[in-house]
Specification:
This protein is mainly beta. The chain is built from 2 helices and 30 strands. Strands 4, 5, 6, 7, 10, 14, 15, 19, 20, 24, 25, 29 and 30 form a 13-stranded parallel sheet that branches. A 5-stranded parallel sheet has the order 8-11-16-21-26, with no helix packed on it. The chain has a 5-stranded parallel sheet with strand order 9-13-18-23-28, with no helix packed on it. The protein is globular and about 45 Å long.
Length: about 280
C-alpha cells in the first residue's frame, strides 16, 4: 500500500506487528530510501519474517542507500534473505555509500552476507541487482555460502561496482564439506545473464575448508573487470582438496561460467597451500 504524506510516498508493508515504512516509490527515479541502520534492519526483518510472500512484494522494486552506515558498537546484523523461500528480489543501489564494521555472525547457518539469499521472484520484472556499494571492516561468518555482499545468488542477478575491503569472511562448514566462501559472494549459481562486474576485493581474509575465492567462492556465471588482493586461508584438514583461487575458488562447467579481464597479485597468499584453479 502506498500512502502519500505531503507529496512524499511511503512504502508501508506489514511485518507481523511492525510496519516497514521507507520514503520513496518503487521506481528507478524515486527509489525506496534506506536512510539509517534501522531501515536496513527493518528491510531484513520484513524479508525474513514478513507475511504474504515478501520476496514477491519487493520483486523488481528499487531501493537506494542514502548515507554511509557505521555498525560500530551495533548488535550483529541478520542477513536480508535466508532461504529459497525468503530472499531479496529487488534492485539495491548503494549510491556510492559504505557499510562499515558490520557483524554478520551466523556460524550454524547457510547463505550469510548483507544479502543472505538473492533470487528472481518474477521473470517479467527487472532482474535483481546490487550496485555501487562498499563494505569495509566487516566480520562475516556462516556454515556454507558466505560472502560480505551476498551469501548465495540464484537466477539471473547483477552485482556491479561493489567492493569489500579489510574484512574477515569465514565459512565454518565441517571437515571436507565445501564452504563456498568469497569476499563478495559465497556461491553464484548458473544463469545466462548473471554477472559480477567492476568489483574488487582488497585486504580481506577469506577462510574456510574449500571452494574459496577472492571475489566468488563457487562460481557459475560471468565475472568480468574485477580484481582481488585478498588473502585465502584454507583449513589444513582439506589441504589435499584445493579448489581455491584469487578470483574464484571453483569454476562451474556451464557455458555461462567465465572469468574475463580480471586481475590479482602475483604470488597471492593461500596460507601455504597451492591452488589448482588460478584465474587471471
Amino acid at each position: 500500500m502506498i500512502v502519500f504524506f505531503a507529496f512524499m510516498a511511503v512504502l508501508s508493508f506489514s511485518v507481523n506487528a511492525q510496519t516497514l515504512q521507507l520514503q520513496g516509490e518503487w521506481t528507478e527515479s524515486n527509489p525506496y530510501k534506506i536512510t539509517s541502520i534501522t531501515d536496513l534492519r527493518t528491510l531484513s526483518s520484513f524479508i525474513n519474517t514478513g507475511l504474504n510472500n515478501p520476496s514477491s512484494l519487493v520483486a523488481g522494486k528499487y531501493f537506494e542507500l542514502t548515507t554511509d552506515l557505521d555498525f560500530t558498537n551495533e548488535p550483529k546484523f541478520a542477513p536480508i534473505g535466508n532461504s529459497y523461500a525468503r530472499y531479496f528480489s529487488g534492485k539495491f543501489n548503494g549510491n556510492g555509500h559504505i557499510i562499515k564494521n558490520i557483524k554478520i555472525l551466523e556460524g550454524n547457518s547457510n547463505c550469510v552476507g548483507i544479502f543472505g539469499f538473492v533470487n528472481i521472484a518474477n521473470w517479467n520484472l527487472p532482474f535483481p541487482s546490487i550496485e555501487n556499494l562498499g563494505v569495509v571492516g566487516a566480520q562475516v561468518n556462516g556454515k556454507q555460502c558466505v560472502g560480505a555482499i551476498a551469501g548465495q545468488v540464484e537466477g539471473c542477478a547483477y552485482i556491479k561496482d561493489c567492493y569489500v575491503t579489510n574484512s574477515d569472511i569465514k565459512g565454518l562448514s565441517a571437515k571436507y564439506q565445501a564452504a563456498s566462501v568469497g569476499a563478495l559472494v559465497g556461491k553464484y549459481n548458473d544463469c545466462y545473464a548473471g554477472t559480477v562486474s567492476y568489483c574488487y576485493s582488497q585486504g580481506n581474509t577469506v577462510q574456510g575448508s574449500n571452494w574459496l575465492g577472492g571475489i566468488i567462492g563457487d562460481n557459475h556465471i560471468r565475472i568480468e573487470n574485477c580484481y582481488s588482493t585478498s588473502e585465502i586461508k584454507q583449513a589444513a584438514v582439506d589441504k589435499y582438496n584445493r579448489q581455491i583461487g584469487p578470483i574464484t575458488g571453483t569454476q562451474g562447467s556451464s557455458q555461462h561460467a567465465s572469468v574475463i579481464n580480471c586481475y590479482y597479485l602475483e604470488g597471492w597468499s593461500t596460507n601455504g597451500y597451492t591452488t589448482n584453479n588460478e584465474n587471471g
